[in-house]
Write the structure tokens for this entry.
Amino acid sequence: MERECCWDREVIELADCPEIGAGEEDLLVSKRQRNLDKCSDCHRFLTDLARLSDENNPLAPILTDLLAEFRHQKTQIQSLVSFLDNKTLEIRFLHELGYVLQSSVDLDEVLSVALTAITAGKGFGMNRAFLLLCDREDGLLKGYLGLGPRNLEEASRVWNEIIQSDMDLQTLAQNFRLNKLSSERAKFHDVLEQLTVPLSNKDHILVKTLDGKRPVLVEGAFQHPDVPPELARLLGVDAFLAMPLISRNRRVGMIIADNCITHRTITEEDMHSLETFSFPVAFAIERASLYDKLHVELERVTEAGKKLKEQQELIVRMENMALVGRITSSIAHSVRNPLMIIGGFARSMLKNSPATDSRRTFIESIVAETRQLEGVLDEILNYSDSLYPTRDFWDVNQLVETALHDTADVLTAHGYATFYSPGIDLPHVYIDFKQLSNCVRTVLHNDITGIGADRSISINSQCGDDCVILTIEDRSRHISQAELDHLLVPFSETRELGAGLGLALCKTMLEKQGIPFVAEAEAFDGIRYTITLPTRKEEQT
Amino acid sequence: MSRLLVVDDEANIRLLYSEELKDEGYDVVTAASSAEAIEKLQLGAFDLAVLDIKLKNESGIELLQKLVKERHDMPVILCSAFSCYKDDFSAWLADGYVVKSGDLTELKQEIARVLAKKAQKLKADV
């Protein structure tokens, strides 16, 4: 028999076998390998086998059966190799994805990776994906993020960009997070808004799928009895995949994926692949959410720790204050009572002694000295009281009105008129209310010792930069700036000016609170006091 | 004639108050402690009490609270050596507050004011 095929030759030339191509030259010298790899598909070998059959060779039918079985087995092996190759790729992809998901605790990063993986050609290759998250507090399944093109034109542009840039999945996700997360959220804002479903709506297909904890491949969405028409219209596709995200038996959210541009059929295989992928995604989302909550709680704990430290410092200060309080209280009673008794009886004697009594001068001296000592005692006690201001936010207009009300009787008795122009919508000021009230009252009382003809006091409050400026203008007093400055020095000889420690104490009290107190004479027809009150806590020094 | 109860642990202060307030036309009874004050209150009615905020080993504020609870129709004026007590919330229970001074004008004015207010209230109730 003349043979057409080279199957029985040990060594052949390239032109002898039509099945051997470039790069397969090693088969030219290996008969066995050539027979196994090429002969079963070679028409020349089949022709030789037919001739063998024609010659009634008894081996011919056996060889034909063996060849058929061999080809069948070979096809199956090729199919299995292809399947294994696909699975290897899938495992590599999931490994890459899992690595990214496990290494991130940033919710946006996790979501970016998840949606990129679903929509990227190197991933699951779906056209579009929406992520919905469970809001347990509001009892809603809420549309949170969407990714994918809205039309063919956008799809062509984006997909071309991706192909040209040839980025891996992680880079794609990072790129999406940094450059497109906000714009994609805005782009799908309308869809995401309408993708919100109450978790209590148990008949809704999305809630039902979530409760069922199994993915659902919806086909024929527009006619599907379980799909609300508004959902089908909103997605605008006939087929979509609803994949619940479940972590530790808890409902985390859902991914809706579709092929809205290519309309490629979503297969069962797609669904199973995505289902495998959904577990690490759900876990990563839940972990990132918990991390966010943990972060918030940590901030709260840090803040609470800071407050606790402040409270501890306050307690120490309060102990100091209590000590000062006990000392001043003790001084007050030890000195005040004898002074009161001496002064009181002196007044009583003065009242009951005849005008001609020669001792009246002595008694009057006692009355005057005790009065002065009482004044000094008041000032010392007030000074000690001012050592530890207790500051908080207060309405300055309310404070001025209260001070005016408290001093109204005295001012009226001295023929004074007060004019108050309160600032509108003033912010609250950070002050020790009691001390500032005391200062305003002291300034007002101080003013009535004036001797000018214009017996009017104007008060004004207005908003400044991070402050409220309070000005008190008294036109009844005419003194030089030097005399006024002297009044602001504690324990200076100022009695003849009629003010004593009052203004100096005010200045000290306010400066202890970091509040500037400026008294100006000469430049005005009287005295102008300017008190700049902070509106922010950190302004304090 | 209005009847006043003066409570102060200092004998000289009680004497001073007593003399001065009698000159003003009041019937004055004095007590040196909370216990004595309560005893005197059980013996007869008073129109007003003048109470020192700091009695020897006791607090005038506690006596004030007791008086407000049991004798709510009798106004009380608190006297203290230090104005800071004015900021004690408990002191706000009193009808008047005066810082002690050898010049009793403020105390007398406060007594007259509180009594007038009480009389006005009684009139309105009738």
